[in-house]
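Researcher: Sequence recovery benchmark, item below. Answer with residues only.
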């Protein structure tokens, strides 16, 4: 690494930062509990993950994965339908694995958080009341009982790497926990609804499309304030606010 001349800031906000130095990603997180989860989840997951090179708190060094993210939110995906199906198959493999030993969020906690975020969106005139109310109604379908599976917990398209039609790895495991399988599938296809059929075909099990759509609404409503407060723009084309509009 001594010969590397450039340091790329991948993401940086007040919670954590990720830098790329050559073929190494340096994740800096003041909350080492999140890093503990990430390291243990990657060790347990039956899918490709980045190699842990070293850990010196608060820094975790990970080897870069081959390939590139399967998509970016707000941009068309250059990945093939076969790659999206392979992503679905990888998610199914994860969901079939033994559960991690720590607890996941309860339906009650998710509903409480969702209601608080909807109140904030309305109180601050961030979105039209009708859009918030209708998406909150749609989100209700996600808040049914589910059988917990090993979920990634933040399966954003930028966290799924592909090389051609092959999935080379999943990154950013800090939210991994027992949870609803439909949440991972919804996270993966958020903003890329056109690839839902490919993902479901690769997943190879019965899924409830209405529940996936409900998670699109729920995730977008819950994420809006965090994104705004951390310098991101959910109103960018193809991002969370467009997802909410499309749900109408």
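Model:
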């Amino acid at each position: 690494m001594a010969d590397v001349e450039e340091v790329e800031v991948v993401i940086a906000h007040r919670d954590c930062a990720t830098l790329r130095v050559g073929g190494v990603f340096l994740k800096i997180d003041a909350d080492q509990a999140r890093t503990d989860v990430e390291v243990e989840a990657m060790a347990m997951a039956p899918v490709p993950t980045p190699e842990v090179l070293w850990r010196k708190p608060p820094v975790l060094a990970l080897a870069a994965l081959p390939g590139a993210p399967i998509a970016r939110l707000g941009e068309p995906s250059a990945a093939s339908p076969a790659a999206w199906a392979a992503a679905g198959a990888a998610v199914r493999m994860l969901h079939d694995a033994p559960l991690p030993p720590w607890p996941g969020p309860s339906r009650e906690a998710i509903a409480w958080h969702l209601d608080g975020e909807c109140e904030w969106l309305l109180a601050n005139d961030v979105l039209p009341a009708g859009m918030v109310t209708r998406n909150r109604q749609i989100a209700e379908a996600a808040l049914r009982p589910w059988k917990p599976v090993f979920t990634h917990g933040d399966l954003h398209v930028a966290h799924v790497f592909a090389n051609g039609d092959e999935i080379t790895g999943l990154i950013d495991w800090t939210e991994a926990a027992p949870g609803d399988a439909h949440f991972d599938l919804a996270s993966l296809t958020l903003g890329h609804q056109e690839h839902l059929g490919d993902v479901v075909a690769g997943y190879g099990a019965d899924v409830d499309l209405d529940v996936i759509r409900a998670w699109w609404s729920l995730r977008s409503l819950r994420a809006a304030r965090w994104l705004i407060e951390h310098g991101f723009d959910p109103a960018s084309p193809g991002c969370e606010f467009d997802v909410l509009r499309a749900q109408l």
